[in-house]
Amino acid sequence: MGLISIRDYREADWGRLQAIHDGARMDELRLAGLEAAFLPLSVAAEREGLFEYALRVAELDGTAAGFAAFTADELAWLYVDPALSRRGVGRALAEDALGRMGRPVSIEVLEGNEPALGLYLSCGFRQVETASGRMPGNEEFSVTCRVLRLD
Description:
By secondary structure, this protein is an alpha+beta fold. 30% of the residues lie in helices and 33% in strands. It has 4 helices and 7 strands, in the order βααβββαβαββ.
């Protein structure tokens, strides 16, 4: 495992964040059977208000490897470059964000995204409900999510 550091987002990170999101988001949607709902970060960031959140970037051995976006009570985005997964980047991002947030914290995980569910459960979250609705930022698609909470 390499050296992981977490820092605030910088404008120079934008291109790398797009690559991270686009690869990881497609994997996430594939697990949920929703590949057709994919939107690149260049579109999703505006539609879903990415820059309205606190935004942190994880570096693995000096290369941006993932990012998380959150408010005081919601962990809204957490993506890791698929080529760099299973190296502790997601856990480091989650722990960094959770250490900056209040309690309770909520997160929604798409049905079928077992890797994310496993990470959050191992961080102390518990499932409080299953919810269905429209996909934020791409409302033509229906989704089912597991709603998790950390007190």
